[in-house]
Amino acid sequence: VMDIPHALFEEKLEAMKAAKGVDNDTDLTANDLRELVGQYKNVYVEAKGEQFPSDPKRQLQLAVLAVFDSWDSPRANKYRSINQITGLRGTAVNVQCMVFGNMGNTSGTGVLFTRNPSTGEKKLYGEFLVNAQGEDVVAGIRTPEDLDAMRDHMPEAYAELVENCEILESHYKEMMDIEFTVQENRLWMLQCRSGKRTGTGAVKIAVDMVNEALVDRNTAIKMVEPGHLDQLLHPQFANPEAASYKGKVITTGLPASPGAAVGQIVFTAEDAEAWHAQGKSAILVRTETSPEDVGGMHAAAGILTARGGMTSHAAVVARGWGKCCVSGCSSIRVNEIEKVVAIEDKMLYEGDWISLNGSTGEVILGKQPLSPPALSADLETFMSWVDEVRQLKVMANADTPGDALAARKNGAEGIGLCRTEHMFFASDERIKAVRQMIMAPTVELRQKALDRLLPYQRSDFEGIFRAMDGLPVTIRLLDPPLHEFLPEGHVEDIVRELCAETGAAEDDVLARMEKLSEVNPMLGFRGCRLGISYPELTEMQARAIFEAAISMTNQGIQVFPEIMVPLVGTPQVCLSSRVSSLDWYKGVPSLHSWCS
């Protein structure tokens, strides 16, 4: 209110409920509320230095101005930036008569989606509060009941609501987000708009609406955003039935937005953004969220709130971003000032690890392992429609046979970049051989280390070619500067480890490390410069590629390898790399057809 922090008013409300011994706002009497209004007015006077305006016209004027001013608020700018909303010049204000859902037990308010925004199921999905106003539902201040409760409380209004939802969805040919109020048993439809949805929900809704003859395939394709498909590739918990998972579930809230999130607890939006900037995974824990929190909500891996339902601010925003969210977790008590949350009988502090299951509402202590997602039949159907109309080919980055198989399964039409350096980190034996190659003082010792690496590289290439049978594979020769393959830590520890692994003397290791150190690794001793200085390195990688290609061809696999030479700046450099790649094959007749 008038730029006065919401928390100042909330303190008075919580104190009043505690003093009167009630849990819900609606349990306060008219006299209690009259007393609370007086306290609110005192908060206003202390903050603004003047009395709260009592003239209704002045109040309306200030309300209209507040809406206009909200357009350029930090939270609004942040939201538009996150969602890439551009080209708009401002917001509009509608002034209309109100209806009231807080006029007793024959009144109420609710929010619903005409289909489940999380799963896409064709069933009304929403929440309802008896004797309440709309803000109580969407702001997450109170935790509402499931929409089915309205059928029991107000059967006639519920039946009319169901009929209206069918009319609106049929007219707009979209899943709709609807707000409504019942005033003394009479239903009022307040607003409707296209509903935010998860990736899973978006795909199922699009496929179902085609099957229902509500939209055609081209329209259905436009209903699914690229970000929705990205959500479907996010990991899920590896084994939620295992004892190591079940035994660490400490509480359960509402499954507001599906998915899995693992991170460290933070209590403010600012901290979530700061931790994200440092590369940390944060779980934002709040009593409830508000529009001021959008930056932190976007930065966080997941969101946990004590209050609010499935249609609260946190739930709606999280679903729109495909962000895991558990809301309405009434068993938790959040103390933002002390940076502690009480969950049942446990006290958790900022930085403690928790995991959230947005599909079940479970809150799990510690870090739970994740696994790749399973792709649904609806997604396969949807992507087959996309394949019929698309004109762009998509290739994947893949550095292992497993990556290549996943890429092929997801529709990749080849590998656009296979980074060979990632193969060297696959096992201790491989990285030790690389370090021996780096530390080798002579060509003979370097070749010995490369001979150890050859079968590893050849085996990986065979697996990738097998997965990409009939499709092109672009393989990039070794690119990073060699110091990136050395151990991390203090110099003394690195020297000790390298001496043990390679058998080199300490002075030789130190001298080699100094020679490999880089001021600007992006422009240093890397890429094709490695192959020019150590042609035997390029020869080993080329040999592994072509031997793997011949092996797979002999097994009936169609192989189309392409070699990328990194960081080439001149024709001479390219020629040098080509010579290193091809010279060794001359004595191997079976390879001549590949290298001509």
UniProtKB/TrEMBL annotation:
GO terms for molecular function: ATP binding; kinase activity; metal ion binding; pyruvate, phosphate dikinase activity. It comes from the Eukaryota. Its cofactor is Mg(2+). It holds the Pfam family PPDK_N. Residues 281-361 form the PEP-utilising enzyme mobile domain. Residues 375-572 form the PEP-utilising enzyme C-terminal domain. Keywords: ATP-binding, Kinase, Magnesium, Metal-binding, Nucleotide-binding, Transferase. Its EC number is 2.7.9.1. It catalyses: pyruvate + phosphate + ATP = phosphoenolpyruvate + AMP + diphosphate + H(+). It is an enzyme of class 2 (transferase). Residues 54-147, 159-212 form the Pyruvate phosphate dikinase AMP/ATP-binding domain. The keyword Transferase applies. InterPro entries: PEP-util_enz_mobile_dom (IPR008279), PEP_util_AS (IPR018274), PEP_util_C (IPR000121), Phosphohistidine_dom_sf (IPR036637), PPDK_AMP/ATP-bd (IPR002192), Pyruvate_phosphate_dikinase (IPR010121), Pyrv/PenolPyrv_kinase-like_dom (IPR015813), Pyrv_kinase-like_dom_sf (IPR040442). Belongs to the PEP-utilizing enzyme family. This is pyruvate, phosphate dikinase. It comes from Aegilops tauschii subsp. strangulata.
